[in-house]
Structure formats: structure tokens, C-alpha cells
Design brief:
The chain has about 600 residues and is α+β, with helices and mostly antiparallel strands. The longest helix is centred in the middle third of the chain and has 18 residues, at about 205-220. Among the domains are: about 5-145, Glutaredoxin (3-Layer(aba) Sandwich), CATH 3.40.30.10; about 525-600, Glutaredoxin (3-Layer(aba) Sandwich), CATH 3.40.30.10. Helix 8 runs parallel beside helix 10. The strands form 6 sheets. It has a 4-stranded mixed sheet. A 4-stranded mixed sheet has the order 15-14-16-17, with helices on both faces. A 3-stranded antiparallel sheet has the order 7-8-11. The chain has 24 helices and 17 strands. InterPro entries: 6-hairpin_glycosidase_sf, 6hp_glycosidase-like_sf, Ssp411, Ssp411-like_TRX, Thioredoxin-like_sf. This is Thioredoxin domain-containing protein. It comes from Abyssobacteria bacterium (strain SURF_5).
Length: about 600
């Protein structure tokens, strides 16, 4: 059985191949088209299509005669998913051996798939020359870049007001979230709404964020076992799709923690604790790191049958569910998802004051650094199978660097800071684009040129901006600030394009990242020995309280005297917190209550 089928389903009748040069060469040699299936182990309709379509004898024969079947798991190869996904899972794509897309669709029932396989082959046979020429044009376009001059920080455009206006204009005033059909948790707009509410006291922003989070927890939270389902089919958030994904839960956890910080409402803490319960009880692996997802259904991979659909299973109380087992958990530890969970759990430790969460997060981070980090190639995508066949992506590098910075803020251990610096150094070398910003992946030169499509995702690039902005604040090295600024500038037009399409809420991460590359951030520096209880209490309080774009650092005079001098902080016998905001720097603070009062003002 091809390893490409593991974790998606075991389809005995179709011998799926990996996405690889060998698969495309096989298609060229045998004069066949590529049938690309993009799915996920948690995907309900992928199971249905495996059972009803790919298990069909006639379809199997067509695939065997006319196609080279290639299966990609979207979480394992997010780069392929990003480039070829047709709007959902499963995605069905028919390609030439040169990498030109002949046809694309999502879920197809057996009759529709059977007809497509026939028609696509006929159309391809009649248009081979045109397809080959189009593939050549695509390859030329994919290779084209335009250099960008190195910017100055003052050239960065903020665009926060425009993005906020778009959020208020396009959000659902009744149910929260965005859109009038399916609703997905979107952490960025909620985080930005909280940040701007803190700065402006605009109650509309708080109302949007609270309404969204309240309806999410009412409709998507598994009240029995914890954790949020991935999305709702309905705009009211009350028809969940029952898969649970680590990334969705980690990012939403941060939103609920911030809601609790800002409002003091216990309901948000309760939801946060339910998410944490799912992550730590169901997804935490014994050695550290977190499993990626839990299936929507109870699915038998051997018989290709859905034994019990999620809607039925999750309607049962926990005691009844146990009689039927549980949906399969994909135990793959993806670095990007696990790192985001580590960051959120460290925040939960400070706010909920649960020492166990700190231990879980740091153990998981140490596991990733030991098993999914290489000094030459940086972050890996997942640590299974050793280091072979685990390509790293920008998201892995940046998410792991951010987790290290969060651990550095929590522990004051410089080892975490050095790890973050190394990760971003390697990421720059591997992913930097000549026209600014960062590509999501490196290219495989052995693949057909038309498949070598460069992509610069906004979300991951803005996470990189935040990371470089934080590194600047920790080190006073202005080179980091320049990288952050140049990346923001390279995305300005992308953001304006989204605003023109009334999709500015999808650029919330741009406004959030801008704070870290400008004077909008808040820097809290505690000068004192990490061994002193007073210094640790000041650090913990600074981490516990809400403030947007907050950067916390403990500088120990016995280790950091040069940096203390460079940043012009006085060294005194009693630990003190130095708080600098966009309004300026306050006098040294030695009292916990005074620090709290200043932080929330």
C-alpha cells in the first residue's frame, strides 16, 4: 500500500501515488493524465467519496486505464492544497503531465466522476497542443518576479482604519462572523477588534467579537468532550461539521483568553478550559507535541464505510459515545499546528494560573526542537519517518519561532530566544522572495515547471512580520525591523485589493502585524534577577494582563548587562518594570498593582 494513502483512507482498489516527479514522469511515459485527489483524515465527504466513488469497479477501471492517481493529504502538503484546492475537500483535479490543470472540482458522486474521467480524457486528446503551450506560458509566469527596493520603516502604510471599517461593514450583525452561509472561526478579525476596542473604546468592535465568540461556543463547542468543531454549515453557527482541528482550536483559544482578559466574563474562561481539555486530553502525545485532528465520523478504513456519522455520534452523551468507540485521531504532529497550540497554552498558563499548562507547553516545545528542527534546514513540517520526506514550510518556521519567543517571555531562558533567531535566519535564507516577503515553500526543481508556482501567503508573512518585530524589541537590532517593514510594504497592494473587494477582514493580520513593526506595540521590560521572586511576579503579571501587541522581556543584570546598557535601563537593587507604549515610557514600576493599573490604562 502506498504511503500516500495512510492517514486519509486505505483504498485497496486504487494504488494512489505520492505527489512526486516520479508520478508525473509515469504519466508522461504512459501518456496518461494525472488524477489528483486532495483530502484529509478528518474529512466527511472524503470518506463518502472513497466509499461511493473510488470504491466503484467501473471508476477503478477508468482510473487504471487512463490516469495516474495521486493522493495528497492537505495538512501534510499545504503547499499543494493551497495551489490546487478547488474550494473544499475532497478536491478532484485532472492535470496533464506538464502540470496544466484540465479540470477541477470538489466532491463528485460516482456518476459525475465517471463522466468527468471520460470527458476530460477526450478533451485532452483533442487539445494536446493548446494544453502544452498553456503549460509553457504558466511555467514562464510562475518564474517571473520583480525586484523591490529596500524600504525605510516610515514608508509602511498602516491601513488599520480601513480594515476595521471593512470588518464592521461585512460582519453578520445578528450572529457574528462573516458571510450568510457557512461560518468559519476567524481568529484574526476578532483579535484586531479586541485590539482596536482597547485603543478606541468603540463598543461596536467589542460587540462584534463577543457576539461571534458567544455563538461559536454555543454552536461549535463539544460540551461533552471539549474542543470546537471546524465550522458551521449554517450562518447561525448551529449546524457544525464535526471534525476537530488543532489549529482551529489553538487560534480560537487565544481569542477566548483575550475575551476573558478584556471583559472578565467567566463564560469565556469556561470555553477556554473546554478547548484546553480537548487539546491536552485528546491530542497531547506522551512525548510532547499534539496530534493534528479528530475525524468527523467513525469511519472504517478497511471496508471504506462510515460506521456512524458525526451528527449522530456527537448528539450522544459521553457515556453513550463510549459504546461506539470514537472518531480516529490523526496522530501526526505537524510543527505549525503544535507550535500554535504551545503559544496559546502558554498564554492560558499565565491567565488561568495553571502550572500544569506551563509544563505541557514547554515539554512539547522541547520535543519539537529535538525532533523537528535541524540546524541547517531549520524547522521540519512533521517529525515522523525521521527527517526524510518531511519538507518544511514557512508556516512551520514562523510558528515554531513564535512559540520559542513565547517560551522566552515566560521563562527568561535565552536558549529559546537563540532558537527563534536561528529559525528565522534559516527561514530568510530558504523562503525570502526577491520582490519582498516570503514564499510559503521551496521549489522542487525535478517537478514540471508549470507546477512550480510561487505563493506568498498573507497570514504566514504577517506572522513573520510579528516575529521580526519582536526580535527587534528583544535585541535592539534594527535589521529585524527593516525586514518586518519590507515585508509589510510588499503586501500593501494585496491588502488594498482585498479592501476593494469588500474582503478587508481577511487582511486583519496585516493590521495586527503592523503594531509590532511600529510604535503601536507595548514593551514591558523587567530588569532584575530571574531568581528573585519579585522579578518573576512582575513578569507573570505583565503576561497575565491584556494589552495589544505586548512584548515582555526579563533582563538579568548578571547576564544581560550590555543589552540593559544599550536600552538605557537603570540597574537597581529592587527589580523594576519599565513600560513603554506609543504614548512614551513610564517611570520604573516596582509594585504589582501599579503595573496592572498602567497596563490596562
Amino acid at each position: 500500500m502506498s504511503s500516500a494513502t495512510k492517514g486519509v483512507s486505505i483504498v485497496d482498489k486504487i494504488q494512489w501515488l505520492e505527489w512526486s516527479p516520479e508520478a508525473f514522469e509515469k504519466a508522461r511515459r504512459e501518456d496518461k493524465l494525472i488524477l489528483l485527489d486532495i483530502g484529509a483524515p478528518w474529512c466527511h465527504w472524503c470518506h463518502v467519496m472513497d466509499e461511493e466513488a473510488y470504491g466503484n469497479h467501473d471508476i477503478r477501471k477508468l482510473v487504471e486505464q487512463l490516469y495516474v492517481p495521486v493522493r495528497v493529504e492537505c495538512d501534510k502538503r499545504p503547499d499543494i492544497n493551497e495551489r490546487y484546492n478547488q474550494g473544499g475537500w475532497p478536491t478532484t483535479v485532472i492535470m496533464s503531465h506538464e502540470g496544466f490543470v484540465v479540470h477541477g472540482a470538489t466532491y463528485l458522486p460516482s456518476p459525475a466522476l465517471k463522466e468527468l474521467l471520460k470527458q476530460a480524457k477526450n478533451w485532452y486528446d483533442q487539445n494536446r497542443k493548446r494544453i502544452s503551450e498553456a503549460a509553457g506560458v504558466l511555467a514562464t509566469e510562475a518564474a517571473r518576479v520583480s525586484p523591490l527596493a529596500a524600504p525605510e520603516p516610515h514608508q509602511v502604510k498602516e491601513l488599520t482604519s480601513e480594515i476595521i471599517e471593512d470588518i464592521l461593514k461585512n460582519s453578520d450583525p445578528v450572529h457574528g462572523g462573516f458571510g450568510d452561509s457557512a461560518k468559519f472561526p476567524q481568529a484574526g478579525p476578532i483579535s484586531l477588534a479586541f485590539a482596536q476596542f482597547f485603543r478606541t473604546a468603540d463598543e461596536r468592535l467589542l460587540a462584534f467579537a463577543e457576539k461571534t465568540l458567544q455563538n461559536m461556543s454555543a454552536g461549535l463547542l463539544d460540551k461533552e468532550a471539549g474542543g470546537l468543531f471546524r465550522y458551521s454549515v449554517s450562518p447561525e453557527w448551529n449546524e457544525p461539521h464535526y471534525e476537530k482541528n488543532l489549529i482551529v482550536n489553538a487560534e480560537s483559544l487565544q481569542n477566548y483568553l483575550d475575551a476573558y482578559r478584556l471583559t472578565g466574563k467567566k463564560e469565556y474562561a469556561v470555553t477556554a478550559e473546554n478547548i484546553i481539555r480537548f487539546i491536552t486530553e485528546k491530542l497531547l502525545n506522551p512525548d510532547g507535541g499534539f496530534s493534528n485532528s479528530q475525524d468527523a465520523d467513525i469511519f472504517d478504513e478497511h471496508s471504506l464505510r462510515i460506521i456512524m456519522e458525526g451528527e449522530t455520534y456527537y448528539s450522544l452523551p459521553l457515556s453513550e459515545r463510549q459504546k461506539y468507540g470514537e472518531p480516529v485521531i490523526d496522530r501526526t504532529v505537524y510543527v505549525n499546528a503544535s507550535a500554535r497550540a504551545i503559544s496559546a497554552i502558554l498564554e492560558a498558563y499565565h491567565l488561568l494560573q495553571n502550572e500544569n499548562l506551563r509544563e505541557i507547553a514547554l515539554k512539547s516545545l522541547d520535543y519539537l526542537m529535538k525532533n523537528a528542527f535541524d540546524k541547517d534546514s531549520g524547522a521540519l513540517h512533521y517529525p515522523s519517518d525521521g527527517r526524510k520526506g518531511t519538507p518544511a514550510f514557512l508556516d512551520d518556521a514562523v510558528s515554531l519561532a513564535r512559540a520559542n519567543l513565547d517560551a522566552y517571555e515566560t521563562t527568561a531562558d535565552h536558549g529559546y530566544l537563540e532558537s527563534a533567531k536561528k529559525l528565522m535566519e534559516v527561514a530568510r535564507a530558504r523562503f525570502a522572495a526577491p520582490d519582498g516577503g516570503f514564499y510559503d515553500a521551496t521549489l522542487d526543481s525535478d517537478m514540471p515547471p508549470a507546477t512550480q508556482i510561487r505563493h506568498k501567503p498573507l497570514h504566514e508573512n504577517m506572522a513573520a512580520v510579528e516575529t521580526f518585530g519582536r526580535l527587534y524589541n528583544y535585541t535592539a537590532d534594527s535589521a529585524y525591523l527593516m525586514i518586518a517593514a519590507s515585508t509589510l510594504i510588499s503586501f500593501e497592494q494585496n491588502v488594498r485589493n482585498l479592501l476593494e473587494k469588500d474582503l478587508g477582514y481577511m487582511a486583519a493580520e496585516y493590521a495586527l502585524a503592523f503594531q509590532f513593526a511600529s510604535d503601536r506595540s507595548t514593551k514591558v521590560t523587567i530588569v532584575g534577577s530571574a531568581k528573585e521572586a519579585k522579578a518573576r511576579k512582575l513578569l507573570h503579571e505583565a503576561k497575565r494582563l491584556y494589552r495589544p501587541a505586548k512584548i515582555v522581556q526579563l533582563l538579568d543584570p548578571s547576564k544581560d548587562i550590555q543589552l540593559i546598557k544599550a536600552m538605557r535601563y537603570p540597574v537597581e537593587d529592587i527589580p523594576a518594570a519599565h513600560v513603554c507604549t506609543e504614548k512614551g515610557c513610564a517611570p520604573p514600576i516596582r509594585d504589582i498593582d501599579e503595573l496592572a493599573k498602567l497596563m490596562i490604562s
